Amino acid sequence: MSFVAVIGKDNAPMYLTTSDMEQELDLQYHVHAALDVVEEKCLIGKGVPESKELYLGLLYSTENHKIYGFVTNSRVKFIVVIDSSNVALRENEVRAIFRNLHILYTDAVCNPFYIPGESLTSK
C-alpha cells in the first residue's frame, strides 16, 4: 500500500499517510482526482452511501498506481492508493483493507475525547 486517505464529508482531509514520503505530493494529487470519481459514482449510484454496498472498487488506475474507494454511511470517504506492481493483491483483499480501515475509523470517532470534524491523529 502506498497511501491511505480519510476524507470528511466536506471533502477536507481528516487523515493522510504514506509509506513513500518522496511521492507524497503526487499521491495526494491522485487522491484529490479520485474524489471527483467518488462523487460521480455516488451521483450515478443515486446515493451509494445509503445503500448496503459501501465499497466503490477501483476508481481509476495510472501507470504506477491503482486507486480504490470506499464511502461510509456518513459520507466519509476512504481512498487507498496501491502500487500497480503489486499484482498479488486481489479484490477481496482490498475489500478487507477497507473493512479494517472502517473499523479503525469507527473506533476513533467513538472515542469520547474525539471532537467531530477534527483531524485524526495516529502513531
Summarize model confidence as the mean pLDDT. 83
Which descriptor suits the 3D outline?
A: globular
> What order do the helices and strands follow?
EEHEEEH
Strand content: 25-35%
In short:
The protein has 123 residues and is of the alpha+beta class. It is 33% helix and 26% strand. This is Trafficking protein particle complex subunit 2-like protein.
List keywords for this structure.
single chain, 123 residues, ER-Golgi transport, five-stranded antiparallel beta sheet, Beta-Lactamase
Question: How would you portray this structure in words?
Answer:
The chain is an alpha+beta fold and 123 residues long. The protein has one domain: Beta-Lactamase (2-Layer Sandwich), CATH 3.30.450. 33% of the residues lie in helices and 26% in strands. The protein contains two helices and five strands; from the N terminus they run ββαβββα. It has a five-stranded antiparallel beta sheet with strand order 2-1-5-4-3. It is globular, with a radius of gyration of 14 Å. It starts with a strand and ends in a 14-residue tail after the last helix.
Which SSEs are present, and which pair or pack?
Elements: E1 3-7, E2 13-18, H1 24-44, E3 55-61, E4 65-71, E5 77-83, H2 91-109
